[in-house]
Each structure stands twice: as structure tokens, then as C-alpha cells.
Amino acid sequence: MNAPRLSLLLFLLSLVPACGGDNLLTRDELMDPESCKTCHPVHYQEWSGSMHAYAADDPVFLAMNERGQRETNGELGDFCVTCHAPMAVRTGATTDGLNLDELPQSMKGVTCFFCHSVTSVEDDHNNPLVLADDGVLRGGIVDPINNGHHRMEYSGLHASDSIDSTKMCGSCHDIVTPAGVHLERTFAEWKASVFNKPTLKGGLSCGNCHMPTTKGTVADFDGVPLRDRREHAWPGIDVAITDWPEKDHQLEVLGRDLFGSILPRLCVQPAPGGVEIGYKLDNVFAGHAIPSGAGQDRRMWAEVIAYDDTDGVLLSTGVVKDGQPVADVAETDPLLWQIRDLTTDDNGDPSHMFWDARDYTSELLPAGVTNDPSNPAYNHSVTKFFDVNTEPARVTARVRVRPIGLDVLDDLVDSGDLDPKYRDAGPTFEMTGTVLEWTSDMGFGCVDRNTKK
Question: Is 43 helix (H, G, I), strand (E, B) or coil?
């Protein structure tokens, strides 16, 4: 390499902060996740594919916020964007989220700076987090290594082994609408659950499930020891529906961590006039209801099919075709078991948009509230029964889920707020842990995950 090129290269390298140096980042630099990438490449990679990073780029969020601002004459204000782009709100870069496409990427989504600057939690819903502006980034490591780029401090709010950390996560994942409806209740569900106790006594924080540990270094420079590093992908039922980094990994961790939370049981028993099929679902591993979050938008349902010995169908409920809204099936399937929140407006009619919701009926699978078998609340499972006239040769059952209902998306498309190309971009998942099959050679009785054929 000739001398001028070498000099230019050395100059450019001097502009890139080296991990472990002595070059404190400015506030603006700390606010940009790209500044974190150099020393925390694995954390950054995981975060970049997460729904935290995607929160302000999700076309469904953008469509719903735009429609909500229009239909409320702007009264919605920063209600949506205060969670989906919190730093943009707190810096005054937006007041309603309608200009997000004009903002730099560093202002979008739930960023590294936002989470790691939290010092206290003032309430239990609608993002009540208090941020410091002192250049100190908080984390769950008791003895952080000096890195020369930002000051560090241990915080129980950031330590997944501390039950206090759930206050920080949970208070952003409970939502009370401007009309006063407690529509998203993940934190409240956890607080009422058996998992709400110190981890040393069998409790679980949000991070214990959604940020599992792996061995690794938390920063990429010499002298950093191997630790139990927390993953930063936060798998949940929502997934990216546009081209987005780490989409395959997003689906991988979703299947790894979430689809086994329900214990199913399928029973086929003789009954007066025929045979009774019972499908039981027991939410035993989730620290909140299933599905949680935007339960009014989720579409989770049970599919149960009974066949005779020629594979003729004796009973069929919950069979939903690709591209078919569950709401359409509900009109012709009186046995359909939907596992969701049903919201209604001022007139008691079903509502799609959260700003119209004035009440709800919850049909979610509740989390466990006690480990004491003598307590009546111990059995929190839900069972639905279906009758057939003759003994079936085979019965299959499973649970399927869509992060957001196609009827909701159709509504947004019809109003002109969502591009039709996104209507079928979302997945339909099978909750793999719920798949069961009973056959007549087993005899009347029940099957579960442990049944051997």
C-alpha cells in the first residue's frame, strides 16, 4: 500500500472508537445504537432483529397510529409513539408519530440508550420510566469492567435475576387506553401469578424467560471475562412482516422459547347418546396469560377434528384456511373456541381499533396463581367439550395463533391506512406443544404429551 493510502487508512481508523480506549461517547453518540455495535456486536445483532428495534418501522403500527390520529382528531397524541419510539418523544423529535419516516433510525424503536438509562419506575403502565441524563448506562452486571466509552452502574431494574427488573419491563407492557380501558395486561397478569416472587424462591422475572442466558463476553475487548450473558432478542408472538435483519433468528427463538408453554390433554369418553371429546389447555409455563399483550388483536383458536374409520369427518371445528379471517369462520362455526380478548365499543358492538374500545371480555388462558394443590385456584386450566354421535376412529387437536387478526388488517386496508401487500405477510403459527392425536386402539381415555402410542 502506498504512503498516501496508508495515511488515509490510519486517519479513518482513528475516527472509529476502539473498545477499551479512553474516549467517552457524547449523549448523541450514546443514543445511537450504531455506537454500541462496535463493542457489543452480539447484543446489537440480536437487538437489531427484535421487535424492540422494529417497533417504529412496523407497517401495522404505522397504519394504526395514522388512522387513530385521524379518527380522534389528533387527541391520540403521543399515546402510541411513547412506547414505539420513546426517545423520539422524549427529545421532542415527534409528538404524534406521524413524522417517523423523516427521523433518523436512531430515534426509532426501543433503543439501547432508552433501556439502559432507566433509573426508576413511576407507575405500572404506559411507559412510566424515568431516564437519567448523566452518561451512565445501567445494567445487570455487579462488577462491570471499565471500558473508556461510557460510565457504568449496576441496577436491579436491569438484572434479570432481580424481581425488580420485571417492574421496568412490565410497566411498558401494560397499556391503559385514553378511554381508561386496561387493554394490555401482561404486567398485571404476572403480578397475580405464582411467578411473582424472588427468583431464589421459584419466581421468574420477564428476563428469565425472554432474555435467557448464554456464556459469552458482554463487550468485545481484551480483559472482559466470560459471563452469563443475557440474550437481547426478546422473542414474542409478534414478528417482522417486512424485510428486516435477523428474521430467521427471530422465528428460531420464538419456536424455542414460546410454543411449549401450554400443556394440552385430549380425552375421548363415552357419554349419553354418543361420545364426548374434551380438549384441555393448561397454561403452566408462562408468567402471564396466553396470548398476552394486544389480546384484542391476537387470533388464537383451537382446531379439533374427529374422523371415522374411513377418514370421514364426524366433527370439525376451528379449521381455518390460509388467508381466511378467523372472524369469518366464527360466523359459521358455533363450536369455535377462540382464545382472545373480545372488545366492544360504546354501543356494545365489536370494535377493531383500541381507541373505540370501551369494554372487553377476556377469553385468554390464565397464568397459574398458586402451587398449592389444596387451593381451589390451583386448577386454572380451561377445557372445551364437543359431542359426536358415534365413536371416532381418530381425533386430532391443536392450537393455532396469528399475531394479529386478518379481519383487523382488512379493516386497516379498507380504510386506506395499510398497504394491501402486508395483509398476508404475517404468519400463522402452530403451538407445537398443543398437538395431540387420539386413536381408537388406545381405548377410551386421555392422551397428553407423555402418551406413548
Answer: helix
Tell which residue, 27, 16, 29, 32, has the closest CA to residue 103.
32
Q: Can you say how many angstroms the Cα of residue 361 is from the centroid of all Cα atoms in its chain?
A: 21
Record the pTM.
Answer: 0.92
Over residues 324-369, the pLDDT tens digits come to 999 999 999 999 999 999 999 999 999 989 999 999 999 999 999 9
Pairing of strands 274-283, 313-317: unpaired
Contact indicator for 233, 255 with CB cutoff of 8 Å: no
Question: Residue 86: which of 62, 51, 115 has the closest Cα?
Answer: 115
Question: Tell me, what's the pLDDT at 418?
Answer: 98
**For helices 59-71 and 406-414, angle between their N-to-C axes, nearest 10 degrees:** 60
8 A C-beta contact, residue 18 and residue 100: no
Pairing of strands 262-271, 445-448: antiparallel
Distance between CA atoms of residues 89 and 83, nearest Å:
9
Q: Mind listing the pLDDT tens digit for each residue in 101-118?
A: 999 999 999 999 999 999
198: helix, strand or coil? coil
